[in-house]
Each structure stands twice: as C-alpha cells, then as structure tokens.
Write a structure and sequence with these properties.
This protein is an all-alpha fold. The chain has a domain at 19-53. It has helices at residues 3-17, 20-52.
Length: 53
C-alpha cells in the first residue's frame, strides 16, 4: 500500500467518528486540501527538477 492509500484510509477512519451532519463539510475540506497539496507537490517537483539542471 502506498502513502496516498494510507492517507486515504486514515481519512476514512477519521470520517467514521465525525457526526454525520458535518461529515460532508469535512469531506469537502479534506478534498480541497488534498487537491491543493497535490498541486503544490507537483509544483515543487517541477521546480526541483529545473533547479537540478
């Protein structure tokens, strides 16, 4: 299992203990943060690659 899968499993376990009425909002927040993380991580990889040349 890779790191991304491990993170998703942890998020799913956390969502189970969150009350149903706020679960949807939390999922939205987590999704937004995850997409932002992916964007930043991708940008870091690109900038590191350019710097290494």
């Amino acid at each position: 299992m890779n790191k991304a899968d491990e993170c998703m499993k942890k998020i799913e376990r956390l969502l189970l203990v969150i009350p149903v009425d706020i679960r949807r909002q939390v999922k939205l927040e987590v999704s937004t943060l995850y997409l932002e993380y992916l964007h930043l991580a991708k940008r870091d990889v690109v900038s590191n690659h350019k710097r290494d040349k």
